[in-house]
């Protein structure tokens, strides 16, 4: 009978407290880097900002640069996605709206501040990877649109620069909020220009 009442240790759930602590530390790191820049980022501030014990930071990331790199990559996913609904106009508008929202986040500000540092290193390489992911996602979507006949043949990097440039300009100036109407106008003008140019060649 005693055997039947033996208390067995509860199976440990994946993630749990350690996963929450890591997420808090990474979020705090992204915000601190956005606030102070990569060169001004102070490793010692992370624990207090994340409301965790210092040992949690040092144990998980003994190297300062590894922490910064992981924090940046963790918050990069939304900036590197382009949906495929079958409607290229809508997908590009959605992309621009998400891009504008992302640029206004701590990670987005970090990315904007740190893409042109004077030295190369793991952090810079991580930022380069993020930008490369965004370019690759745009290229896949544009190539698919060309194959389907949604767009005339166009260099995806050129199209990406044409539509995303105004977003960076409006958001970085901070003079007004970037709206979906802005995204609609930008995509409409650029796609109309591409189609008109193709029709006359």
Describe the structure in your own words.
The chain is mainly α. It folds into two domains: 16-73, Orthogonal Bundle (Arc Repressor Mutant, subunit A), CATH 1.10.10.60; 77-199, Tetracycline Repressor, domain 2 (Orthogonal Bundle), CATH 1.10.357.10. It contains nine helices and no strands. Mean pLDDT is 82; it is low at 1-14. Helix 1 crosses helix 4. Residues 19-79 form the HTH tetR-type domain. It holds the Pfam family TetR_C_11. This is TetR/AcrR family transcriptional regulator C-terminal ligand-binding domain-containing protein.
What structural class do the secondary elements suggest? mainly alpha
Please count the beta strands (DSSP E, at least 2 residues each).
0
Give unreliable regions as ranges: 1-14
Largest sheet features = none
Fold-level CATH name of the largest domain = Tetracycline Repressor, domain 2
CATH-level-2 architecture of the largest domain: Orthogonal Bundle
| Helical residues, percent | 55-70%
Assembly classification: single chain
Overall radius of gyration: 22 Å
Number of helices: 9
CATH homolog superfamily of the largest domain: Tetracycline Repressor, domain 2
| Total domain units | 2
Outline type: elongated
- What is the CA-CA span between the terminal residues? 88 Å
H-E order: HHHHHHHHH
Mean pLDDT: 82
Strand content: under 5%
CATH class of the largest domain: Mainly Alpha
């Amino acid at each position: 009978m005693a055997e039947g009442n033996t208390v067995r240790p509860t199976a440990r759930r994946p993630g749990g407290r350690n996963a929450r602590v890591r997420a808090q530390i990474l979020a705090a790191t992204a915000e601190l880097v956005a606030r102070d820049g990569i060169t001004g980022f102070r490793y010692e501030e992370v624990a207090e900002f994340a409301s965790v014990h210092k040992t949690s930071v040092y144990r998980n990331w003994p190297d300062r640069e590894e922490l910064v790199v992981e924090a940046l990559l963790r918050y990069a996913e939304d900036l590197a996605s382009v949906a495929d609904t079958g409607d290229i106009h809508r997908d590009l508008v959605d992309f621009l709206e998400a891009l504008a929202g992302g640029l206004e986040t701590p990670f987005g500000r970090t990315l904007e501040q740190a893409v042109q540092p004077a030295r190369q290193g793991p952090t810079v390489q991580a930022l380069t990877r993020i930008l490369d992911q965004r370019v690759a996602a745009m290229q896949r979507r544009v190539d698919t649109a060309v194959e389907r006949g949604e767009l005339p043949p166009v260099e995806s990097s050129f199209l990406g620069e044409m539509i995303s440039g105004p977003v960076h300009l409006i958001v970085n100036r901070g003079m007004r909020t970037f709206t979906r109407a802005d995204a609609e106008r930008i995509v409409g003008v650029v796609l109309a220009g591409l189609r008109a140019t193709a029709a006359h060649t």
